[in-house]
Predict the 3D structure of the following.
Amino acid sequence: SPTILWVRRDLRLSDHAALTAAVSRGGPVIPVFIRDGLVDELGAAPKWRLGLGLEGYGEALTEAGSRLILRSGPAREVLEELVEQTGAGAVYWMRAYDPDSVDRDTRVKEALKAKNVEAESYTGHVMFEPWTVETKQGGFYKVYTPFWKSVETREVPEPLSRPSSIPAPDNWPQSDHLDDWHLGAAMRRGAEVVRPYVQLGEQAAQTRLGVFMRDKVADYNEARDRVAVDGTSAMSENLSLGEISPAQCWHAGLRARDAGKDGAGTFLKELVWREFAYHLMWHTPRLLTENWRPEWDAFPWNEDERLKEVKAWKQGRTGIPFVDAGMRELYVTGRMHNRVRMIVASYLTKHLMCHWSIGQKWFEDCLIDWDPASNALGWQWSAGSGPDATPYFRVFNPVTQCQKFDPKRAYIDRWIAEEHEAPTDTALSYFDAIPESWPLSPDDSYPEPIVDVKEGRQKALDAYQNRDF
Ligand code: FAD
């Protein structure tokens, strides 16, 4: 009987345990992507990027003699209907770890099993299943370094190669048309502005990884913090949709380390930050929605998204060039350098004392590498409310950070046009990207700081010291 391959955030053919198992089971394989409520809830940029990813994945499957079937509706109902229509005896998928997906998948599994349909989920979106990494006391890890130590020497299975062929059914079930889903509808700047920054699909992801390992990883230790330099892997975009697997990145990192390339060890550690985020999200799903440390509920956060300071932060008009450059990079490219993510997050949560969830939501709307676990951990880490967070009294100073990590101000010049004699094309492109409701122009004068760097820091520290927790 046919096997349904329920495709989710795993848009690749190689190192895909569920696909490999489906092919091994014998019989035709029917890949299907379901637009359910969780897809509808995605932020504008991740949803748009998903649409591109699905288009690319559909083409890759077609080239491999298969197809991608698209269906809409609650996953359980859609899968039950498909099983009935195709006579499938099994449904396989790659596991997800966020609480809503876990909840949905558990219900789907039960419903299918009740109908005597084999339902199996596989590892691959992470390397280390969250429940397999335990402290000596049998609990989960709350601090990164011991987590790293407990996994660094683990054997990660060699990535699976792509199946030589994917058996097709005689008749394909009906499919929606991707264009009718309008996944890019909320992303008006998508096609023109952000598209050039996208590297789409499995092949591009592999090339990106190869180029990084060949040309960049040796200098990664130094280059990764120089914000104007393209010195990191950029794999997060592809990891987000599973166009590449973390195990493929891990093994490439191991090979580079064995070849004596200096930064490879650091790259492996960074990949494990992603694993750590998934570990924490799985064990404490409140990471996504609540102050991980409940004592932070008593902190006098600004929670009103309509505050003019929040608007200025989103629009890259705080008057702090390093922060504004980052926010504009985010809006135009759908990405932001990691160091700058930390700085804009610190600025929002400390200098402006805004609740981290405001920033988390804006990032979710703008990032093409959006990842529920890494985004939540990054925000809670920056705000001080998370496990293993930066101590609250360590407030990033955006001015000294800029002197240190962008000493020639190349990054700032790349993104700030106002009051520059010859603004760069990228800085100007921001003004083409923004909506009409943001009446900004490169000819405007650059704003004065909305909050003085020193005063903002002091105000946040005072609030922290006077806290009643
Ligand atoms: P590289 O430096 O090449 O690192 C390799 C890989 O390691 C990355 O692709 C990523 O998968 C992983 N990694 C590196 N740093 C981290 C980290 N701090 N936490 C988790 N994984 C990491 N990352 C996302 O993928 N999606 C997000 O939505 C996201 N939101 C963030 C929000 C904030 C406030 C902060 C501070 C960080 C966030 N990060 C997020 C983590 C980090 O900024 C990005 O993973 C990194 O910038 C991606 O660039 P890269 O692929 O070139 O990374």
Notes: The chain has a mean pLDDT of 96. Residues 224, 232-236, 239-240, 267, 270-271, 273-274, 277, 338, 341-342, 345, 363, 367, 369-371, 374-375, 378-379, 382 surround flavin-adenine dinucleotide (CB under 6 Å). The radius of gyration is 23 Å.
